Amino acid sequence: MNRNQVLPQIQLSSDPQALKRVDFCAPQSYKGAGFLSISDLPRVAKEVSAVIPGDGFAWNVETHFEESPGSDPHQIMVLGLNGRLHLVCQRCLQGCAVDLAEKRRFILLATEEKADSYPVEDEEQEPLVASQQFNLLDTIEDEILLSIPLIPKHPEGFCQPQISAAGGGGDDEPLVERENPFNVLKNMKKNS
Asked: Which of 31, 49, 65, 173 is the most exposed place for a label (fewest CB within 10 A)?
């Protein structure tokens, strides 16, 4: 008989406060889904350029136990994230919407030592230390932060041209050529 068939499956609350203390040491599996706004994710909020209504992340989590040869079954957690946030485009320095869709798989281990000794070569799943007060909200936020592009930018051709405050950028105004600040040094050298 499969261990997943005899263990109760607990429905996770979508309340952000309840996600801060999930007992992953209990002999049960979990399933849940919800939506987290940017205000529910303070570290993500520090990264965004603007908060637009509707920005945030739909999440879903499911845990199950997998048989492991030579040891007890391991608890596996699958986390799905899908959402949008606004960052500064590094090409045009204007705001741009960034859509993220991630699916991650974790193996929940009993101790820090087991997590540290988990094979790095296993790219299918990352180790996490299970606890009775596991902060699932922090894990969700960590995965969002890891998914944010290092250099956010609009798709090619979608950047808005910058309008200079000094020049106005209008077609009717002639462009005034600014004097090179190093001309002063060049003139000083000529005079010596």
From this structure: 173
